[in-house]
Amino acid sequence: MEQSMSDTPEFPVFPRELSWLAFNGRVLQEAADERNPPIERLRFLGIYSNNMDEFFRVRVADVKRRILLKKYQSGEQEDAEDLLQEIQQQVLQLGQRFNAIYLDIQLELRKHNIELIDNFKLGELQSGWVKSYFRDEVIKHISPMILSGDEVSLPKALEDNTTYLMVEMTGSAKPQYAIVQVPTNELSRFIELPLHLNTRKKNGHYRRQILLLDDVIVHCIADLFAGFFEFEHIQAYSLKLTRDAEYNISDTLDQSLIDKMSKGIRQRLKSEPVRLVYDNAMPEQMLKVLSKQLGTSSVDSLIPGSRYRNFKDFIGFPNIGHQSLEFPALPPLKSPEFEQAATSFDAIRSGDILLYYPYHNFGYFTEWVRQASFDPKVTHIKMTMYRVAKHSRVIHSLLDAVRNGKKVTVVVELKARFDEENNINWARKMTEAGIQVVFGLTTLKIHSKLCLISRMERGKLMHYGHIGTGNFNEKTARIYTDMSLFTCHQEITAEIDQVFEFIEYSYRPYQFNHLIVSPTWSRPRLIALIQREIDFAISGRKAEIFLKVNNLVDQQIVDLLYRAAQAGVKIRIIVRGMCSLMPGAAGKNQNIKIISVLDRFLEHARVYVFHNGGETDVYLSSADWMTRNIDQRVEVGVPIYDVRLKQQVLDTLDIQWRDNVKARIIDAKQSNAYVKRGNKRSIRSQQQIYDYFVRQHGQHKHTEHE
Q1: pTM of whole model > 0.85?
Q2: Which residues are annotated as a binding site?
Q3: How many CB atoms are located within 10 Å of the residue 367 CB?
Q4: Where on this chain does Mg(2+) bind (predicted)?
Q5: CA distance 24 to 418
Q6: CB atoms near residue 49 (< 10 Å)
């Protein structure tokens, strides 16, 4: 449960949970946007669903804990019950919007000869094929859970955010109930029916039809249970359970508070489901049985929905039609600095290098580590690991480095939310290979994006460093916008080395003159940077702050930004997700302007710009302006000293600020109104940034079909 530095806000703030829902509303806007290709619109629905799962697992779970703990907490508390009611109301409204958009996209896909059908629309030949497919491919992956007696503990048996079907069999002496898991880990969720079985259009072409795996099982549900149970009628309805994502509540609550709580309350904090979403066509009696089995007594945990659960799978919806149904490719651009050098080390030694993913190729980072794995001059590789790909080329290079006699140290964050299992598996494999695996500090997440490679050159040890805003993950580097700085600036690389020392030996004294390092050194540094702009404004000089972050909710920083605006500091902010600042509220902050850009790539880079009396300071960072990032994690920000690279960062921020296609205004109500284009030319910033780097590098221009 994240605590603010200030208990009572000095200025008006927007509730972060509702701000998060406003962000997911922007995702729905992308799904509704007919300028986007229909397959991409469908994938945005998948992103929305995945986001909403995380929202309930984290944010709603936190609100429910606050309600549960209210009587144990002293002091004035926000009315969590009212907040939860507002959340539920908005979630239902968003759900209705979601369903309408889904129907609209289905109609659009039909125009392109693609049809999503359910089991009720199957013809005789199609039904026969589906039954054969079920027997040959599906049934071997299904083992129903029978709900009778106390043999099955459903709360323990159901996996989080997995699609299930609840089955009811009637006609015998007593109704029988069972749970069937939809095996999406073993089979594709989307089953394309053979063309010769599909509906032929008037022009002679076949309509391509897709049936969800859920409907395959529902269509054959009687075959699954026949011979084992007697029934005259059988029906199945979908459901999905969402649990609290906090695996260690004691990390987020004051220990004295935990001591006060009864054993029963502590157990409820860890085990009570946050959300049960079910097909709203499910009969009332089935829902009662399900609720009783799950012990879900809270009405606000039960959320009716549409026929299908786990729309997150739609993120990977296949394009079985024309390529125009999805975004055209933007081929990653080449880096002239890396391309023109004999080795990655030669390139970095010639000057700092900035890469902006996915516009640039992430392969330059993996190639740098690959070269280090066998370079005879390299002695030591150090890296932080928060989220990496399942089949990580980066880690394979680290394993190669150990085989080549290099010393390798990897700081692994085992509590990277939703990536715990992947990180544990990699940590085990690296340890077995001889890599020194460090798990860091028990009370702090390691969220920084650091790599330090040490190399003997002419009898001296030289350090080459990387500091970035995103993870070392080849997969997400294709869809997240992130910035990476490669440098051999010896004072900066020495401070990177200090960060690695701090992670292992946090009790030692450290000093950082260049880097902004959380937890100990970040807050006073950020406050000082903001205060410096306030001082400039008070003295009558130009004062500006330009931020790009994912989330802005730290109360002390928010209050300081309000005060800066009152003092005359011009503040521009590009925020992707949660934002507590309320531009225009109570007339206190006319100097604050905030937008949010949402498009085909997920905006993930964090950039801080301070005018500094004309000597502009620009920082890249792994940290958002949230209490957890400033006080409770190891995060690192780096200044950009190279004048050319600094200008590139400023230029890209300016392009985003002028976006009038995919930018929304963040106002006091967070109503997500688009920035008005007026008579200005169309600026879609992600495409414009790509074209900007094409011009910078003198490479072939790619044209996107709008």
Answers
A1: yes
A2: 51, 387, 417, 480, 576, 604
A3: 16
A4: 387, 417
A5: 19
A6: 22
